[in-house]
Design goal:
The protein is an alpha/beta fold. Helices cover 43% and strands 12% of the residues.
């Protein structure tokens, strides 16, 4: 067995913490203010139990699902996350892992790798947009994603500016220049494995965001694009409907935590919504996504696809989300832990852990297919749910 192999996402996280410079690791872990929402995202799953059947089915269960028109091998999509300085290959390693395991990958418009290169890795690619700049700016990004071959768009709405953003987050430099190298050199020396990865790659961590501009233009820095986003008024539901028409293909709105917003998303014509609190990086005190999922599914699940993200660490967590009505889940930190530990193979390891956990949970529940899972398979405490009207 490979010494780089690990058997749980928790172990992947421990290895990421040991391998990454403390500032980089804290950037992954960061949440807003006291981190109440970050903790609730994971801890809420522990409140849910299972009610297994016996004497029903045996053999290998069917894990396949369809999300945004793409058939995937299990109900897991890799969530778009920003600049991935945890490994030199960044989003390319993640996309290759997704392709090798038959699932889709989200690419952030704040990502460090060009959308054309990510699509070429072979996984169904969902290009993620923030509402930054004018409609003309957004059209240029949409058309670049279309030309590259992205199959769907994700419009992220669960991100707003907060002076108390990123609880525990370190200072992140504007660019990796001599000043930044001098400042962070002590951390890099303490993490020789991470440092050697970048030395061997022949490049420094890249904090530019190439997908924010037409291909060939000089990309802005992460904070340059962030500054433009701060100066852009948030989109209205009319803007969302315009984007649906402009794109003309499958589109997900990410960040829905209320029934009234879910209904507005359906009225705007979106294909899917993700029940999400941005991994606890937006408004602290927002409940875990899994707590509001059932109410939202009951309201709009017959009109559009409902996906959720936030706190997935085990295959059993995926099954709990499916039982409460999700079409699939998206994972962010879990895949970054694997990426930090050993690049593409680390992400594949995380995906294999989730796949095996989903399969064994289905066998334990007596379900032959992941789509057969029902709410009655899960024990939901009386105080678990949060009304999401």
């Amino acid at each position: 067995m490979s010494t780089t192999w690990f058997e749980s996402v928790a172990e992947a996280q421990r290895r990421a913490e040991r391998r990454l410079p403390p500032s980089v690791y804290r950037a992954i872990q960061a949440g807003t203010e006291r981190g109440v929402t970050v903790r609730d995202n994971t801890e809420a799953f522990d409140e849910l139990g299972f009610l297994p059947h016996v004497g029903h089915v045996s053999g290998d269960p069917n894990l396949e699902a369809t999300v945004l028109g793409q058939r995937i091998s299990m109900p897991v999509v890799i969530s778009p996350t920003g600049v991935q300085a945890v490994h030199p290959d960044g989003e390319l390693a993640v996309a290759r892992a997704a392709a090798s395991r038959g699932i889709a990958v989200g690419l952030s418009s704040f990502g460090s790798q060009p959308v054309e290169d990510v699509v070429a890795c072979g996984a169904p690619t969902f290009f993620q947009l923030y509402w930054v700049g004018s409609r003309d700016d957004i059209v240029r990004r949409v058309e670049r994603a279309r030309s590259a071959g992205a199959q769907a768009l994700i419009l992220t709405l669960d991100w707003t500016f907060s002076h108390s953003r990123d609880w525990g987050s370190p200072v992140i430099p504007e660019t990796i220049d001599l000043k930044a190298i001098a400042r962070f050199a002590p951390e890099a020396v303490r993490r020789p494995g991470w440092t050697l990865d970048f030395v061997r790659s022949g490049r420094l961590p890249d904090l530019s965001v190439p997908n924010m501009v037409p291909r060939g233009d000089d990309p802005p820095t992460f904070f340059g694009a962030y500054g433009q986003w701060m100066q852009t008024p948030p989109p209205t539901w009319d803007d969302v409907a315009w984007l649906v028409e402009t794109w003309g293909g499958p589109l997900m709105v990410k960040g829905v935590m209320r029934v009234d917003d879910a209904r507005r998303a359906a009225d705007a014509g979106v294909s899917a919504i993700s029940v999400s609190n941005h991994g606890g990086n937006n408004l602290d005190g927002t409940p875990a996504s899994i707590r509001v999922l059932p109410t939202i599914v009951d309201a709009v699940g017959d009109q559009l696809e409902v996906v959720m993200d936030g706190g997935i660490r085990r295959g059993g967590d995926v099954v709990k989300a499916i039982a409460l009505g999700a079409r699939a889940v998206m994972i962010g930190r879990a895949s970054l832990y694997g990426l930090a530990g050993s690049g593409q193979s680390g992400v594949e390891n995380v995906l294999d852990i989730l796949r095996n956990g989903i399969a064994s949970t289905l066998v334990g529940l007596g379900r032959a297919c992941v789509s057969d899972v029902e709410r009655s398979d899960v024990i939901i405490p009386a105080e678990f749910a949060r009304l999401a009207e």
